[in-house]
Design brief:
The protein has helices at residues 3-23, 27-49, 57-70, 124-144, 293-298, and strands at 72-76, 79-86, 89-94, 97-104, 108-111, 157-161, 165-170, 175-188, 191-199, 203-210, 215-217, 224-229, 232-240, 243-250, 259-265, 277-284, 303-305, 313-315. The chain is α+β, with helices and mostly antiparallel strands. α3 (57-70) crosses α4 (124-144).
């Protein structure tokens, strides 16, 4: 075999090898394609495995009863409507006709009537999630009974203040969310400023209303503020028909003392007074006021005053285990 023949065979071999490499599938592309196919198949199998859900006639009947019993009576286009809203779920009852909708993923909405039918394969997962939301909303309404209309709402803040003290009131829970002394300084959040006695979320309180079947906490409810005058605000849960529960705050001029009183009007229409009691709950995490933390811890204590104009002031020991 001469030199030219050997060279020709080598060139043919290189051509064959190069052609094979150029036409062989890329391993990375092939692997990604296979993974994508596997995920698609898995998603399809998952979709097929999910059983469609829907609201049955018994559930719709129970929801209708809940809305009629606990919904808020409104006038819409000259008609009496019982309305009940719970976050992304809303119900409306006109006569014997129940309607409503569930908002999913921001803009997607399902009507109550559509949730009574079985879903198609493409929307099965989202449809089932909407059905679950309706059931949870109905259970929450049954749990809070007449108070169900106050479970959802918007948390707003308004202020009561005088020359000495500034108070922020929040509609969520109808409580004081922040108290600030105007004429005293403190070291807080790494800098010096007006002394903040407490603020949300480190301060929370409320009234627990107990019946023979339920326990309601005002911390869960959204109140409507009523500005009675420049120094008084009434946080109100209005049931309609001259029935309401409220917490009134009064901050007199040039005073450090704020008066808080519970006011009720015809609440026996909602809760039987013979089987109800009320507890007061207050949780607070004390805020830091001094730059020297260890000094403050050694010299801080809790002082309290007994009720009545002549009530004595007492305190828990700064260093003991009272």
């Amino acid at each position: 075999m001469d030199k030219n023949t050997i060279l020709g065979l080598l060139l043919m071999g290189l051509v064959i090898i190069g052609f094979t490499m150029l036409n062989s599938p890329d391993d990375t592309t092939s692997q990604a394609s296979e993974q994508k196919t596997e995920k698609s198949v898995a998603a399809e199998k998952k979709q097929e495995a999910v059983v469609g859900d829907s609201l049955n006639a018994t559930e719709l009947g129970r929801i209708k009863t809940i809305v009629a019993q606990y919904g808020k009576l409104e006038m819409r286009e000259g008609k009496q409507v019982y309305a009940l809203d719970a976050n992304d779920v809303s119900f409306a009852l006109v006569g014997d006709s129940l309607s409503g909708q569930v908002v999913m993923d921001g803009d997607m909405a399902f009507s109550l009537s559509s949730l009574a039918a079985m879903p198609d394969a493409d929307s099965r997962l989202l449809h089932n999630a909407a059905v679950k939301k309706v059931r949870e909303a109905a259970e929450k309404a049954a749990k809070y009974s007449d108070f169900a209309r106050f479970v959802s709402g918007k948390s707003d803040t308004l202020r009561l203040e005088n020359s000495l003290l500034s108070l922020d009131l929040t509609t969520k829970g109808g409580m004081i969310s922040k108290a600030e002394l105007k004429n005293y300084k403190a070291f807080q959040k790494g800098k010096e400023g007006n002394c903040v006695l407490f603020e949300s979320p480190y301060n929370a309180y409320g009234f627990a209303i107990n019946t023979d079947t339920h326990r309601f906490s005002t911390e869960d409810f959204y109140f409507t503020p009523v500005q009675e005058n420049d120094s008084t605000v009434l946080m109100k849960l209005d049931f309609g028909k001259d029935v309401y529960f409220g917490i009134r705050y009064t901050l007199p001029h040039d005073s450090y003392l704020v008066r808080m009183e519970v006011v009720q009007q015809n609440m026996s229409a909602v809760i039987d007074s013979n089987v109800s009691t009320t507890d007061f709950m207050w949780n607070q995490k004390m805020m830091r006021h001094e730059k020297g933390q260890s000094f403050e811890e050694r010299n801080s204590g809790v002082f309290y005053k007994f009720s009545g104009e002549d009530g004595d002031v007492d305190n828990l020991s700064e260093t003991g285990d009272d």
